[in-house]
Amino acid sequence: MQDPPPEPRSLSSVILGIAYMLGMTFLSAIMNSAARHVTETIHPFEIVFFRNLFSILFVLPLLPRYGWATLKTQRFRTHIGRACLNVVNMLLFFTAITMTPLAEVVALGFSAPIIATFLAVIILGEVVGWRRWTAILVAFGGALIILQPGVDSVTLGQGVTLMAAATWAGCLLFIKALSRTEHSITIVTYATVLMTPLSLVPALFVWQWPNFHEFLWLAFIGISGGCAQFFLAQALHETDLSVIMPFDFTKLIWVSLIAFLFFGEIPELTTWIGGAVIFAAGLYIAQREAAKEDAERDELER
User: What is the pTM of this model?
Assistant: First the structure.
């Protein structure tokens, strides 16, 4: 017996999904800005550990609401693989924000879905048509606009940022695979709980006890990061990725404003142009994937 077709999203559900997405981008921007501030005295590796530790304080109270049964999983190894790669991603990302302007880090980070599409071809054997290949090439051009090779050599910070984007692309593949069978709360909970002890290992090599003021900042980073993860999961629960993804670009607007007010950073025009090009290519790919999934669903229903 075939599954019934999914019910169409109501207007209120779409609006709520967009609101969650806007909240996620704002929380993500202030978390990254706070981390940039704390890196002046605390090593990025230690920040990663506390970011995960305090995220647990946000995630665990949600379990009674959704039911402890959501922790049941048959894919524990996949959760571990995602957690290991995500820790590497965080180590790279929080290191990158100490070396590169925040707006540039965010703009280059938009390349993650593009890289994920490329990796899906290499690793999962997914078939990508010429339109999405064109979008990948366009996104590559956007990255070149930001990096400006030949004008100035690509900096170490930019290289670390691209590595962070690549590892996050791998995480997206893990999340995509897990979301086929796991509840969003299950994915977020296992990621947070597993990443905390994993991130403690590199933190121990650079450990220094934070003072009270630093401790409050670290708590803020962790709780806002956990809240941002939950908001993203809720946004995807309320509506489709193709609907909310256009609003992800506001992350660049938020972080540029905060970086200007608190760090005196003014994003270069090439950062805005390149970021917009990469984002537009990623948006196109998301819409193509959504259209493909709808076509496959219609075919199964016939």
Answer: 0.82
